[in-house]
Design a protein that fits this description.
This protein is mainly alpha-helical. 73% of the residues lie in helices and 0% in strands. The chain has 2 domains: 90 residues, RNA polymerase sigma factor, region 2, helix turn helix motif (Rna Polymerase Sigma Factor, Chain: A, Orthogonal Bundle); 61 residues, Orthogonal Bundle (Arc Repressor Mutant, subunit A), CATH 1.10.10. It is built from 9 helices and no strands.
Length: 181
Amino acid sequence: MAKSDADQWQEWAGQAQQGDKRAYAQLLKAIHPYIQNVVYKSLSQTDAAEDIAQEVLISIHKSLSTYAPERPFKPWLMSIINFRKMDYLRKYYSQRQDKTSTTEENPEFMAENVTNPSHAGELKDIEDALSEFPKKQQDIFRKIKIEGYTALEVANQMDMNESAVKVSAHRTMKKLQGILK
C-alpha cells in the first residue's frame, strides 16, 4: 500500500533529524506546496502568503530537532503554519491604526447596523436566552459582544484575568448559538 503524504513527510522528517540531507531536501520540496495551499486559502494577499510560507520553512529548519518522529508530522506542521500566520496577522493589524474609525464617523454603519429597529427582535431573543446564564457570565457577554468593550477592559472592570474573560465570552457565545438555533 502506498504511503500517504503525511506518512512520507513523517518518515523524511525522522531521517532528516538523523542527518539525511536528501530526506531533508525531499521533505522541504514536498511540504512547500502544501504550506502555500494552506496559507493562500486563508489570505487574500499573495505576497504576504508567500512570505508566511517562507517563514514556515525557516521555522521548520530551525525547529526540526524538536519534532518527535514517533508522532504524526502533519499536526506539528500545521501548528507552525498557524503560529506564523498569526504572527503575520498580529503585526499587520497592529500597523493599521490609521484605518480605524469610530461609529460617529460612520453614520451609514450606525443607521444600518446599530440603530436599525429591524434588529430589535434579534437582540430581544439574545437577551431572553442570556437571562438563563449566571449574572457574571451575562455581564461579561454583554460588555464584550453587545456593548463593544475589549476583553482587557472587561477584565480590568471585573478584576479578572483577560484570558478568563475571553473564555467566558466564547463559551457563552457557543451556548447561545446552540440555544438560538
